[in-house]
Structures are given as structure tokens and as C-alpha cells.
Specification:
heterodimer; A: 251 residues; alpha/beta; Rossmann fold; four-stranded antiparallel sheet; 8 helices; 12 strands; B: 392 residues; mainly beta; 2 domains; nine-stranded mixed sheet; 5 helices; 18 strands; nucleotide-binding (chain A); ATP hydrolysis activity (chain A)
Chain lengths: 251, 392
């Protein structure tokens, strides 16, 4: 059973004017079988939390801990974190011209699983996962994310989620920019992934996706930390009243 | 122009009529040519033509001190080859030397190899073996097609020593030729090569250049069109290691209407003193209406201490063209790409290899696998070996 523990995490972003603190003491624990929604206004640091956990070089951890099953994630390289069982579905997936989706997926699966998947079963596995997400076969030959629409990129993030099967998945605004149909397809993909042995940290600005993916816990993120936690009912409250009371509160 | 200044895309057509940027290029079409080495001044290194080339490493090819008494071995398989004397009337049909080393080679070669391609479907392989370490040689090779012929030629350069040569490619009307030129030299080798590419009416030439080996390789292709409808693709890749100098200087001279040219060169550089130079001169003369041309150079700097020079230059003397453009970009690895690949479990070294492979893939894809099933794989492996050598 996996657990992601974030303890008093502080992080800064590198800017031309020097480091700027963004995360100011984040405490959060995600256990296997749980889905946590992190909601917050723009600029609250939600995405920074996601990228800091994944190890993006732009962010510097100034204090605190991130533990996956007791192991310090912060001591690992980006790829070690992924192989340890962390996955970040990105808000803006990166284009990698010239690297085919098929080659990329197989390289990633080989790295995460520790051995190359058997070709015959792999092809079936990928086809089936693509069909689940309404992704047509031709995408396998296209360069990673190149020329994909916003919705296609998000579907491919969820495709990778399905194939890499991480212990903890962090979904950074996977719902943003999706139309109703795409939102349904992507949400179904996330729901297929969820089970008793993995955990999901769902970062979103809107409550819309929570109608498809029911969280166990909802956290309000403001001023670089979690300011309030509750059950799904907290999302309803945010739907009605917005983030106003959290933004006005002194950080 | 330093590599810093050319980083990023050069604006399309900017200053095109007067030459690119601050480089006051003499009109490329008016450059001096001669078969006689003594008609050229000994270069000092300040000339536009020579300013990027480390003259000291030319082993005397430029100043008359090279003995040129060695011999490059030319082996032709898949077609009949003739060995001819200097007085063969076909010699010089494709062009005239435009720099002192090309003229030196022209003045010095004893006999030339002429390969006539009359449409045999099987690929022809021409292997040029250097004269051996410590030796210098001049050589002359001509590939010529017959009317309506289609052919594929692999021109391999390997071995040691110093070679100055002229390559003439004469395309008969309505013929089609694909040439893959590889520079797979040993580490000591110096190769200075002038390519004269003469394109007949409605003829189609595709050249894929792959420069991997050698201490210094400088190749200067000049494309001329003898009639309308000519179509030329020049693509190339170079992989410069520490201390290695790879230089490509192209001139595409559009002097007749209705012709097309497309140029794409990519270089990767790694290690202290790795240096690539790409000069792309495209000239559209007043008579060359309905010309369609595009040239693009991309350089991927893999490590500190390497230098890529890139000078695209487009001169246009008529507005009655279909399109003309050029671009140049020099950069390092994209950190966001590497982060994305790593975030999927792929280690940094493998991620970099994926990106470099993809970078060169666009060029290697132009090597036809139907006629040359093994060549692409061999070159891919050679690039893998370059990558592995310094652990990029």
C-alpha cells in the first residue's frame, strides 16, 4: 500500500530577479485508494506543488520533505522519481519532434517496468488503452505531442497514466481546456486507473471535473499552502462561493 | 557573425537583396573561377571564403606546400567505371574550381574516374580510400547520367591521409539521381572537396551528405541548372566531436527559370573545439523566374566548448518567383523536452539520445531503404557510437 507524504514543503521558483518563494509549508498525505482534489485560485502555487514533487529543475526545494512509502523523493532524479512510482500528468505536455509516440511509450514502459514489455502483448496493450481513450491508431506514428490539439495532449497524458500504472498520480489541471466529451473520456480514463493500491492527487481550478471523478478529500490551496481541508462537500461550497474568502485571508 | 548572433531563426528574406546581415558578400554569382591554381592568391584566412577554416590544419593544400604525391584508391561496384586522362573532353563539364584548393586538386590530378549511370536499377557504390596517414593526394571523380536514367549512388570516403578533390555530377535531361555521400574518415584525415552539380532540364538530384569522421572536412557544393524544370534536394548531417572541423559551403545558382532547390543541413556538436560551419548561398538571377527555394540549417550544441557558425545568404534579382526562404537555428538541448522524457522514467542519457536520434532522423529518412537497406542502419549505428563515445 503506497503513501505519499508531503511535510512542511517550501519551494522557490528561479526568476531573473532571484529565487521567489511559492510553496510556504505544504502538508498533505495521500494514501493508496484515496483521491485528493487540490483546488485553488490562479497563482496559488498548485502547479508549483505538482512540478516540485516531480522534480522540475526550475523549482528549488528550500525545506520540508516529500516521502513515497517512506523514501525521500527529493533525493531522487526526475527519472528515478518516475521509476519509484510517481506520475505527473502535465497541464502543458511538451512536444518532442522526431520521437514517435510509439517509441516514446515503449521507452517509458521499459524504464518504469524495469524490462522491455514483450512485443506481442505490448502492441495489444497499447491498442486497447488507446481505444479506451478514443485515440486513433495513427497517433502511434506521430511525434510526441507535436501538432496535437489541447484535448489530444490530455488524452495522451492519461494514456501514459494507464500504461505506466504509477503508485501515485498527480494530475495537474488535466481538465483545463477540454470540451464536455473530452472531459468525460479523460475522466473515465482516470477512473479506470483508480484502485485500492494507488492514489490520485487531482489539481484543478474548476469543480466541473469533480462531477466525473469523485474525490475522497478536497483541499483548498491558497498562498502556497493548504488552507482548508474537507470532504467532497467542500467542493460544493467552492462552487457556490468561489475562492474569495481564501484569497482575502492573509496568507 | 558569431554563433550567438545567428541563434534563433533568421527572418525570412530579411535584407535578402543585398545579402544577409552585415556580411558584405560579393554576389555569389560573380565569384572568380579558374582551373589554374596560380590564378588564386594563397589564402591568409581573412577572406570570406576561408575565414572559418583552420588553414594550419589543411596540411599545405592551400599554399602549394602539399606534395600531392599520394594516391586515393577509387573502387566502383555496380556500374562500369572509366579511368581517363586529364584531356578527356567530359572533364570540367559540370563546373570550374572557385577556390585555391579546388584548383590545386584540378591542377594536380593525374587521371580521373568517370562513372556513367545509364539506368541500372541496382545501387552503385563508389568507395574512395584516402592515401594513408602522412600522405597527400588529389583526385577527380565524375558521375554522369544518361537521359531519362534513374540511379542511386553511394559515395563513401574512408581511410587516412589528406585528400583534395573535385566531384562532378552531370545530370542529363530528365534523369533522376540520388547520391548518398558519407565522410567516414579516420581521425587524422583531411578532406577538402569541391562538388560541381550540373542539373539538366527536368532532372532531379537528391544528395544526402553524412559527415562523421575526419579531423577536417570541408565540402563546397555548387549547383547550376542547365535548363528549366531542374529539381535539387541537398540534405546533410554532421556530427562534430572534440577538435573536429566540419564545414559545408553551398552555392545554389538559379540562373534559369522554373527550377527548385531545397536545402536542409543539421549538425550536432560535442566536446572542446568541435566546430561546424554552414554557409548557404542561394542566388536567384534575374532570368530565374518561378524559382522555388528554401534552405535551413539547424545546429544542436550538445556540450560546452563547441562552436557552430551558420551563415544563410539569399540574393534575389527577380520578384517573379514562387517562393524563397532561409532559416538558421543554433541551440542546446531543450530542458523542457528532457524533463518531460525523464518524468516518464527515461534516464537523462537515454532521453538525450532519443532527442539526438530524432534530430538526425529527419535526414536519415531521406536515405531510400528500398534500394539501400543496410546503409541507413549502418549510419544510425555510427551515430549511436558517436553518442556513446562521450556519454552524451
Amino acid at each position: 500500500m503506497s503513501t505519499l507524504e508531503i511535510k512542511d514543503l517550501h519551494a522557490s521558483v528561479t526568476t531573473d530577479e532571484g529565487p521567489k518563494p511559492i510553496l510556504k509549508g505544504v502538508d498533505l498525505t495521500v494514501k493508496a485508494g484515496e483521491t485528493h482534489a487540490i483546488m485553488g485560485p490562479n497563482g496559488s502555487g498548485k502547479s508549483t506543488l505538482a512540478y516540485a514533487i516531480a522534480g522540475h529543475p526550475k523549482y528549488e526545494i528550500t525545506s520540508g520533505e516529500v516521502l513515497l512509502d517512506g523514501e525521500s523523493v527529493l533525493d531522487m532524479t526526475v527519472d528515478e522519481r518516475a521509476r519509484a512510482g510517481l506520475f505527473l500528468a502535465m497541464q502543458y505536455p511538451v512536444e518532442v519532434p522526431g520521437v514517435s509516440m510509439a517509441n516514446f511509450l515503449r521507452s517509458a514502459a521499459t524504464a518504469v517496468r524495469g524490462e522491455a514489455p514483450k512485443l506481442r502483448t505490448w502492441v495489444k496493450e497499447v491498442k486497447s488503452a488507446m481505444s479506451d481513450l478514443d485515440i486513433s491508431d495513427e497517433f502511434a506514428d506521430r511525434s510526441v505531442n507535436e501538432g496535437f490539439s489541447g484535448g489530444e495532449k490530455k488524452r495522451h497524458e492519461v494514456l501514459q497514466l494507464a500504461l505506466l500504472n504509477p503508485k501515485i498520480a498527480i494530475l495537474d489541471e488535466t481538465d483545463s481546456g477540454l470540451d464536455v466529451d473530452a472531459l468525460r473520456v479523460v475522466s473515465e480514463g482516470v477512473n479506470r486507473f483508480r484502485n485500492e493500491s494507488n492514489g490520485v492527487l487531482l489539481i484543478t481550478h474548476y469543480t466541473r471535473i469533480l462531477q466525473h471523478i469523485t474525490p475522497d478529500f478536497v483541499h483548498v490551496f491558497a498562498g502556497g499552502r493548504v488552507v482548508e481541508s474537507g470532504g467532497p462537500e467542500l467542493a460544493n461550497d467552492l462552487e457556490k462561493h468561489g475562492y474569495e474568502r481564501f484569497v482575502k485571508a492573509p496568507a | 557573425m558569431t554563433s550567438q548572433e545567428v541563434a534563433g531563426l533568421a527572418p525570412e528574406l530579411k535584407g535578402a537583396k543585398k545579402g544577409q546581415g552585415e556580411t558584405p558578400v560579393l554576389s555569389a554569382g560573380e565569384r572568380f573561377t579558374s582551373y589554374d591554381v596560380e590564378a588564386f592568391e594563397v589564402p591568409s584566412g581573412r577572406e570570406e571564403n576561408w575565414r572559418f577554416t583552420p588553414l594550419k590544419r589543411l596540411k599545405g593544400l592551400h599554399d602549394g606546400t602539399a606534395a600531392l604525391d599520394g594516391r586515393a584508391t577509387v573502387t566502383v561496384t555496380g556500374a562500369s567505371a572509366e579511368t581517363v586522362g586529364r584531356d578527356d573532353p567530359r572533364i570540367g563539364e559540370a563546373g570550374t574550381p572557385a577556390d585555391r584548393v579546388a584548383a590545386q586538386a584540378w591542377s594536380a590530378f593525374a587521371e580521373a574516374t568517370i562513372v556513367t549511370l545509364d539506368g541500372t536499377p541496382d545501387p552503385v557504390t563508389v568507395t574512395v580510400e584516402g592515401p594513408g596517414a602522412g600522405s597527400t593526394a588529389a583526385a577527380h571523380l565524375q558521375l554522369r547520367t544518361t537521359t531519362h536514367a534513374e540511379a542511386t549512388v553511394v559515395l563513401e570516403h574512408r581511410g587516412s591521409g589528406v585528400l583534395a578533390d573535385n566531384l562532378e555530377i552531370v545530370l542529363a535531361d530528365a534523369s533522376r539521381l540520388t547520391v548518398v555521400v558519407t565522410e567516414e574518415w579516420a581521425d587524422d584525415a583531411v578532406h577538402v572537396s569541391a562538388q560541381h552539380l550540373s542539373i539538366g532540364r527536368d532532372a532531379v538530384l537528391k544528395v544526402v551528405s553524412v559527415a562523421l569522421g575526419g579531423d577536417l572536412v570541408r565540402v563546397s557544393p555548387t549547383v547550376t541548372y542547365r535548363g528549366p524544370g531542374g529539381d535539387v534536394d541537398l540534405v546533410g548531417l554532421g556530427y562534430a566531436d572534440a577538435g573536429q572541423h566540419l564545414e559545408q559551403r553551398l552555392l545554389v545558382d538559379h540562373a534559369v527559370p522554373q527550377c527548385r532547390s531545397n536545402v536542409l543541413y543539421k549538425n550536432a556538436l560535442q566536446g572542446e573545439g568541435a566546430h561546424t560551419v554552414w554557409i548557404g548561398d542561394v542566388l536567384i538571377q534575374a532570368a530565374a523566374e518561378n524559382t522555388e527555394t528554401y534552405e535551413f540549417n539547424r545546429n544542436l550544441v550538445l556540450t560546452e566548448g563547441a562552436r557552430a557558425d551558420s551563415v544563410p545568404n539569399l540574393e534575389i534579382e527577380t520578384g517573379e518567383i514562387i517562393s524563397a526562404g532561409h532559416a538558421s537555428a543554433t541551440g542546446r538541448f531543450d530542458d523542457e523536452q528532457l524533463f518531460y522524457l525523464q518524468s516518464r522514467g527515461i534516464d537523462l542519457e537515454s532521453a538525450r539520445r532519443l532527442v539526438v536520434r530524432a534530430f538526425f532522423g529527419e535526414i536519415l529518412l531521406r536515405i531510400p531503404t528500398t534500394t539501400l537497406p543496410e546503409l541507413r542502419a549502418r549510419l544510425e549505428q555510427a551515430i549511436e557510437a558517436e553518442l556513446a563515445a562521450t556519454g552524451v
